[in-house]
Amino acid sequence: MKGTGILAALALAATATGAWAQASAQANPGEVRTQVMQLLKASQKSHGFRSAAISPDGKLVAYSGWSPTGARVTVAAVSSPDHTLGVSARTDAKERCSEGSVAWAPDSQHLAFLSDCASDGHEQENLFVASLSGDLASGKAHAAVAQLSDAAGEVGFPTYSPDGSRIAFLYVAGATRAAGALAAMKPWSGVIGEDGIEIQRIATVDARAMKPMKPEFATPATLHVYEYAWSPDSRKLAYTAANPPGEDNWWVANLYVQPLDGAPQIVFNPTQTTGAMHGLQIAVPRWSPDGQKIAFIGGLMSDQGSTGGDVWMVASSGANATAGAVDLTPGRTTSPAWIRWADNHSLYVSELRGGLSELVRMNLNSDNTTSFSQPVYALAGSVGDGRLHLSISAARNDSSFVFIASAFAHPPEVYLARTMGNMGTDFAALTPLTHANNGVADEAGSLWGKSLSLNWTNEGFHVQGWLHLPKGYDPAHPDTSHKYPMIVLVHGGPAAATMSRWGVGGSLNAASFSALGYFVLEPNPRGSFGQGEQFAAANRKDFGYGDLRDILKGVDAVLARYPVDAKRVGITGWSYGGFMTMFAVTQTTRFRAAVAGAGLSNWQSYYGENSIDQWMIPYFGASVYDDPAVYAKSSAINFIRNVKTPTLVVVGDRDGECPAPQSFEFWHALRDQHVPTRLVVYPNEGHGFVNPDHRVDVLVRAAAWFAQYMPAS
């Protein structure tokens, strides 16, 4: 329902005000905080992982796992994973430090990793290499660790050249903040857009020096690099890059090829192509083994690192940089997120399909059509390290893949999948290489309810989502005399997807609400990944309308099957989910309470306030100055007089992606209309909160807000 068609429901608001006031008197914030803290304390017993990689010969696996004193690197034998060797640059000077981002040398005897454990009390990461000797499978092995880089800034994503002579990494010299739009923006000062611009470049060091060296820049200072790959002959780099500032221009990045001793050349320019990739985003560049082609993932993406689209291929020579890209997966109803060439005529593709993470082999025919193998795995879970970037590691012969995986009922572990294994949709199809969380699922998992995949159709679209049951709810023997409240949790993006993932992650999370007695619906409406490019692009020029109708149809599907009280349904979300929360309460009174995290209320003013305005052009079709009406159409502030739903608003004061004025604008308008509201601004936080106390406080406040207006009992 859109426009005034939804206003017929507003008559319900007059009778609801008294009920909301009565619920407010019943809330006990202290009790809610106690419940949340008990949940968080129990859930923190599980161990997380930062990265994992299998050696090229397939015999060893390295991974970085979190401990009470930080992340640590471990090497294990694949044949006997209980035989492990700790690898560290740690000195006695640091009680807590972190190591990870592991990368194997082609010889499978040297392991590169990042560490801040030798920085004399500072948090400066540097590149280290462990030289392995002995037989780990028999329990007799040794690692000699040497520092390779003498960096002063942000270092990330190290990769050996195929010949093993150099290690490349992304480097921001003199960085004052993490690269990207999620980190807290620097306080505004000086000449805006010109002073203090921090540029991420590719740097390299000699992999054989075994002593600290100043990084050597391989790419020019005029380009901000996002992702890269070595050419098979180790003489060139392929990378995606754009002019600075980097956090804004990822959406207009080009694909470059550059000799180590030469100048960059554009081999694909999405802004100039006349094909289906026009104006879209590119990610994950990968060279073919013969060096003649580069494959990449291209599509409509709303955040760097949240990757989805089709698999495309272009000539590495750049012979036709504006129109030479070929779509290898047109019409495929999945969202590829990671690729690796198997040989010159096939690739492995990790993709989202509905609620599944799957790995398939894609075979290229002579006419550029493709065929697909049965999945190596099709997992009802999440693959990767929990960050935006998906990470899968493969042995040289592609017979074995190693990755971190988890699900709602499975804490994270490092797993092995073999190409000749038994495809399945559960974790029984995988071989666990770690057992850090044995017993945690039974202990911590009992704190929240079970989860299941839910499917429904709306307006010709197939929509998938996740339904979390309240703690203690038994679907086989439901208590039909009792009605439960439900919280709708909308993901960010919009080009993203909620997948089955372990635990209490993020400031707003389903596990916590489930533990507090709520049903929780996490929908993947149109605009999400997992159903193909047509589905991901279906909310273009329509933010808040079709996706809201998909969400409401999902609510109806739950109401038809489960004992949920239709008068106690709330909504929350972060980022685009925060926008959807703000917009939803202007379009319907079905939601009894709302919590908007890092949202935006006015697309017209937002365009001039945020640090990433380029992302909106593909979605809205033009800038706000050329077509203000399409921005006004989806601005919650233009329908603000319809709101009757009590709404809590939270935001970081240095958020560059969804700036705090957007939250102020929404809160001020609700207060002016005497709608129950509260605004909480967190100091020194960007779009993604990093202070653990702040993350906990957001969750506690959100839980208390829902308990106040739609209590669980």
For this entry, give a set of tags.
713 residues; Rossmann fold; Neuraminidase; eight-stranded mixed sheet; five-stranded antiparallel sheet; disordered N terminus
What would your notes on this structure say?
The protein is an alpha+beta fold. Among the domains are: 3-39 and 448-474 and 481-709, Rossmann fold, CATH 3.40.50.1820; 48-147, Neuraminidase. It has an eight-stranded mixed beta sheet, sandwiched between helices. Strands 21, 22, 23, 24 and 25 form a five-stranded antiparallel beta sheet that branches. Strands 26, 27, 28, 29 and 30 form a five-stranded antiparallel beta sheet that branches. Helix 2 (29-43) crosses helix 13. It is globular and about 65 Å long. Residues 1-26 have low confidence and may be disordered.
Could you provide a short overview of the structure?
With 713 residues, this protein is of the alpha+beta class. It is globular and about 65 Å long.
Summarize the SSE layout with pairings:
Elements: H1 11-26, H2 29-43, E1 49-54, E2 60-67, E3 70-77, E4 84-87, E5 99-104, E6 110-115, E7 126-135, E8 140-147, E9 153-160, E10 166-173, E11 201-206, E12 216-217, E13 224-230, E14 236-242, H3 246-249, E15 254-259, E16 265-268, E17 281-287, E18 293-299, E19 310-315, E20 326-327, E21 335-343, E22 346-353, E23 356-364, E24 370-372, E25 377-379, E26 382-383, E27 393-394, E28 400-407, E29 410-418, E30 431-432, H4 440-444, E31 451-458, E32 461-468, E33 484-490, H5 510-515, E34 519-524, H6 533-536, H7 546-561, E35 564-574, H8 576-587, E36 594-597, H9 603-609, H10 616-620, H11 628-633, E37 647-652, H12 660-672, E38 677-682, H13 692-709
Parallel strand pairs: 33-34, 33-35, 35-36, 36-37, 37-38
Antiparallel strand pairs: 1-2, 2-3, 3-4, 5-6, 6-7, 7-8, 9-10, 10-11, 11-12, 13-14, 14-15, 15-16, 17-18, 18-19, 19-20, 21-22, 22-23, 23-24, 23-25, 26-28, 27-28, 28-29, 29-30, 31-32, 32-34
